[in-house]
Amino acid sequence: MSHLGVGYKPGDIVSASYTFKRDKHEDLSFNRNEQLRILNIAKDPNWAHAKNANGETGLIPLNYVKLSGTSSVDLTCYQWFHGRISRAESEKVLAGHPPGSFMIRNSDLFTGDLTLCVVGPPQSLDAHLNAVNGGTNYQVSISVDDLPPTNVQHYHIICKHLNDVTPATSRARDITEVTTHYSLDEYDWFTNLQDLIEYYAVPDSGLVAPLKHPVPDLLRERLKRLRESGWLISRKELVLGDQIGRGEFGEVLRATYKHTDVAVKICKKTACKLAVTYEAALMTNLRHPNLVSFVGLVYEPEDNAIYLVTEYHAQGNLLTYLHSRTRDEVTEKDKLQFSIDACRGLSYLEERGIIHRDIAARNILLSGRPPRIVAKVADFGMARDLTHTTQYPTGHYATGATSPMITSPASTYGRDPLDHVSPYSERQCAYSSESECLDTMHSLSLHDNAAIPIKWSAPEAVRKRQFTIKSDVWSFGILLWEIYSYGRIPYPRMLASQVLPQLKAGYRMKAPEGCPPEIYRLMRQTWNIDPEERPSFATILTELTSLLTVHPVPTVERVLNIRSPSVVRTPVSMSSSGAYVVTLAPRAEIDDDPWFSRSERRRSLSNEHGSLRPTSLERSTTRMISPNPIEF
C-alpha cells in the first residue's frame, strides 16, 4: 500500500499542479504553479499541512502538488491514459474488448497513485449461467442478457519518488533528478509507465493477460480533433435560455449563439460525454437541408460538462406537431412532404453508409413556416458510420445452442475508423498502415448498451442487435405509419414484448385510416422480414416524389445561418466506440392483446400469472429495452 505522504517530509517545497478550492474551513486554497511549504503530514497521509507565500496555512491534497524540481510527467500524451474516471466507468469503456486490452487511470482508493485495468479471458458461458441460475445452466435459448460481462481486472500502480526506492531493486538508469517511479509489486520499479507496460506485455508476467491492446481515451482524442478543426466554441459565446427538453443524457436548453437561436444539449456524465463527442464528430461530416445542422461543441473542464450545440427548430418535433393539429390542418400534401423530406435526409445518410438506428417521428424536427415547413432528421446519438467502423468478435462461448457472436463498436484500438476523405475537407486518413485496419463490416452487430425502441426497430435489430441500412428502412416504414396515423403509437393496444413474436408469425399493421394505397404498399415493402428484400432509401424516395403530381412544393430554404468561425472548420473523425447510451428501465405496461378473444386472454393471463390483470387502452410512451442497463 502506498500513500502520498511517504514521498514528502516537513520543509519540502512543492509546486501546485492544479488549482484547488477549499471545501472545508481548515483547507488551504491555492492556484496552479503556486509554491507551498510542507509543515507536516496529516493524519490522513494523502493530505499535508502547508504554508503559502502569504503565511496562510491549512490542509492541502498531495495529489494536487509535486516536489519542486520533480520532473513533471504529462500522462495525457499517452493514448491509454484515461485520467479521472471511476472503476465502473473504466469497465464500461473496456466492455467488449478482447483479452489483453488495457488502460490506465487515476486510482480511486489511493490518491496520487494509478490503476492498471486489464481485460482477461472471458468467463465461460456455462460457468456464468451456472452462477446466475443457482447451479443449473440449462436453458433452451441464450439471449444477450445472459452473456457474461467482460472480465476486467484492476491492478494498483504504486507511485513513489526516487529517494523512496531501494537502488538494488530499481530499474532506473542514469537518474540525475528527482523522478517518479512505478511498480505493481514494490519489487520491480520503472522510471516510466511505458517500460512497465512493455515488461508486462509478455506472457506469464503475472497479470490476467499480457498487455497487448491499448484502449485510447476517445473523449480526449475527439475533443482534440474538434478543437483542431475549429468546431469547439467558447462558453462565453453562448447565452443559455429556458429548458426545452430533458432526457437520460441531461437537459436541452434554448440558447443564443452569435445572435442566432440554437439548441444546447448538456451532458455531464462520462458515458454521455463519449456519446455526445461521437455524435458531434459524426455530424461534422454531414451537410444536407433535411438533416439538423451541427453548430459546435463547448467543453469547459471547470464545468465538468459538454455542450452539443445544434440549430434550433421553433416548430418542435413531428410527433408533437401531428398531435397538436387537427386532421384538417395536416393535409395530404403536408404528410407526403414530411415523408419526402425525411427520406431525402435518410437517403443522404444511406449514400455515406451511415445508419441512424432511431428513426421515429419524435426525432424529426420541423423548421420554416407554412406553406413550406421543412422536416429534418435529428438526434444522431445512436448513429454509426458503417463504412469506417471496424469490429472484431469478442464472444467465443461453446454451448450446445447457437451462441451469438457479440461484436462491439467499442472494439477499435490503435486507430480511428472514421478517418476518411470528406467532400468538405482535404483531410486524409491518419492511419495508412494496412495492419492497423480491420475488415469493414456493413452489418453491425452491436453490444454497446444502446437502448432499442422495440416498436420502431427491425426484427433482426431487436433479436440479434444487428443494424444495417435495411434496418433503418424498416424503421422508416414505421415513421410513415406514424405520419399517416397522425402520430399514433405503432402497434396500438399491443405490449412491446408482443411485437416480435407477432411479426415472426407474419403480422403487419393495417393501413391507417385514409392512407393512400401507394403509401401503404411502400410500408409493407419496408416491413419485409428479409432485410435484403426491403427497398433502398433511394428507391423509396423515387416512389414518394412520383406522387407529387398535383401541388408543387416551395424550395427548401436554410433556416440557420451561422457565421463561419475564424478557423476553417473541417469534418472530424472519431472512433466508433463508446456510444454508451443511458437506457431507460422498461416500465410495466398492461394493454389489450389484439390477437386473442377476451376469454382466451383471461385464460392465458390466469395460467401465466395465477391471477387476472386489468387491461388498459392508454397510449404508451416509447418502450425501450437494454440488455445491459448502465448504472451511474
TrEMBL record:
Q: Which reaction does it catalyse?
A: L-tyrosyl-[protein] + ATP = O-phospho-L-tyrosyl-[protein] + ADP + H(+)
Q: What spans are recorded as compositionally biased (Polar residues)? A: 607-625
Residues noted as binding ATP in the record, renumbered to the chain: 273
Q: Which residues form the SH3 domain?
A: 9-70
Query: Where in this protein does the record put region Disordered?
Result: 600-632
In what residue span(s) does the SH2 domain sit?
Answer: 80-215
User: What range(s) does the Protein kinase domain occupy?
Assistant: 238-554
Q: Which SUPFAM superfamilies match?
A: Protein kinase-like (PK-like), SH2 domain, SH3-domain
Q: Which PANTHER family match?
A: TYROSINE-PROTEIN KINASE
Family, as annotated: Belongs to the protein kinase superfamily. Tyr protein kinase family.
Protein name (record): Tyrosine-protein kinase
Q: Which organism is this protein's natural source?
A: Opisthorchis felineus
